[in-house]
Amino acid sequence: PIAEIVHDIDLKDEKFGRQEVPGIERLIDGMILAQKEDEMRLTRGMAIFDDLYEYFRRRRE
Predict the structure, then answer these.
(1) Which of the residues 20, 30, 40, 43 could staple to 35 if both were Cys, CB 3.0 to 4.6 A apart?
(2) Domain carrying residue 50
(3) What's the CA gap between 26 and 48, in Å, rounded?
(4) How far apart are CA 11 and CA 22, in angstroms?
(5) Digitized pLDDT (tens) for each residue of the chain, 61 residues in all
(6) pTM here?
(7) What total of structural domains would you count in the chain?
(8) What does the buried/exposed string (b/e) look like for 26-42 if buried means 16 or more CB atoms within 10 Å of the residue's CB?
């Protein structure tokens, strides 16, 4: 699911129609506006996607 979300955010083609896309896109946009340093953007972005991975992993159990 994460690859589909990233695809739809990146290419803006709604190929997968993931319902999570608008919320995650806003979250990432807000993080970028709040963090001016690239290193912090990478750190925060990785944390966002790590948490998203955990959400989908637990949902499968």
Answers:
(1) 40
(2) 2-60
(3) 12
(4) 13
(5) 999 999 999 999 999 999 999 999 999 999 999 999 999 999 999 999 999 999 999 998 7
(6) 0.84
(7) 1
(8) eebeeeeeeeeeeeeee
